[in-house]
Amino acid sequence: MNFNGINWLEKFIPTFIINSEKDAEIYVIDNGSSDKSLAYLKNNFPSIKTIPLEKNLGFAGGYNEGLKKINAEFFIIVNSDVEVTINWIPPLIKVLKNNSNISAVQPKIKSFNNKDYFEYAGAAGGFIDALAYPFCRGRVFDYAELDKKQYDTYSEIFWTSGACMAIKSKDFKDVGGFDKDFFAHMEEIDLCWRLKNLGKNIFYTSESTVYHFGGGTLKYSSPKKTFLNYRNNLWMIHKNFKGKIPLFLFVLIRILLDQISGIKLLFFGDLKGYLSINKAHFSYLTSIGKMNVKRKQFSKLNFHELNEYSRKSIIWNYFFLNRKTFSEITNQ
User: Fold this and answer.
1) Cα three-residue angle 222-172-12, rounded to 5 degrees
2) Which helix (H) or strand (E) holds 292?
3) How far is residue 250's CA from residue 252's CA, in Å, rounded to a whole number?
4) Where are the alpha helices (DSSP H) in 241-313?
5) Which residues lie across from 209 on neighbouring strands?
6) Where are the domains of the chain?
7) Number of H helices, E strands in the chain
8) Dihedral-angle region of residue 32 (phi above 0 means left; psi in -120 to 50 means alpha; beta otherwise)
């Protein structure tokens, strides 16, 4: 996926071709770029197939539309700010081929800028805590772990990172792809949750490694990113949660905790971040009717019975008990 990312194409496409073209067809879905991305690809890499979209549909809508034009058994989704490595594709396809119930798989995702460390977006696989806060093996909130091969495993996870993931095209289509209303952020977690509600499995393999620059489209401190993350998390919960307590109470607890988070931002002088959280809550509350319709479209398993859901609270463990790593929090 590319959006006005000619600088990322120049940086990462040459290595991407070298390490990928023998194992897969390469497509670049262009999300209505206004820079010279398409011309650059045409002039320098004519073997790459391009799928130009008329306007920016976001990560979710862009992939939905672009993937409709690709006929393949498996889709491998890769951000434009990702550097791939030798032999990164075969381990992913092997996982999907060897188990009919596995829908998606993620490689090890490390930091491009500090290659000994895991990266924010995905690390060694995604999980969800007791209050549906997403976190990763190798990265909890802002703390990224040094990769000491502690997560060199083949194991089930809750969600795969949109920075790099492989998924069976049939399963992707069967659940309707990404929710285009999300635009960007958490759409991959929502997708994986829907798959898990159908009894499908999501996996991680350390046999494949990529390096993610991170924040290539929206900086981590961006108010827009804050808005999308907080709103989309509530949307995701509303659509997919079924648990021991009523949905409205679960959401209310989350909104109260979000407000505490917002007050903390305000205390540290981040007025834009605080306002973004309140804007996210307003957007969620005004879209409850729409979310109720979506909620009825999907079957739901009990949240507390889903594999790779953690019964611990990452907020309590991280901020109050000073436990920063996945292993410390989950005892795994």
Assistant:
1) 50
2) helix 288-297
3) 5
4) 247-267, 271-285, 288-297
5) 108
6) 223-308
7) 12, 12
8) left
Q: What are phi and psi of 272, to 5 degrees?
A: -65, -40
This prediction has a pTM of 0.96
Structure tokens at 34: 């206004």
- The two most distant CA atoms of the chain are separated, in Å, by 57
- Measured between alpha carbons, how far is 195 from 179 in angstroms, rounded to an integer? 13
What's the CA gap between 251 and 305, in Å, rounded? 19
Q: What is the mean pLDDT of residues 45-56?
A: 96
Q: Which two tokens stand for residue 74?
A: 């498996």
CA distance 250 to 241: 9
Each residue's pLDDT tens digit, 70-100: 999 999 999 999 999 999 999 999 999 999 9
Mean pLDDT of 293-320: 93
Contact status, residue 5 vs residue 80, Cβ threshold 8 Å: yes
Model confidence at 217: pLDDT above 70:
no
Q: Where are the alpha helices (DSSP H) in 86-132?
A: 89-98
- Strand pairing class (27-30; 49-52): parallel
Task: Name every residue whose Cβ is closer than 8 Å to that of residue 11 and which is 6 or more positions away in sequence.
Answer: none
Cβ atoms of 169 and 67 within 8 Å: the answer is: yes
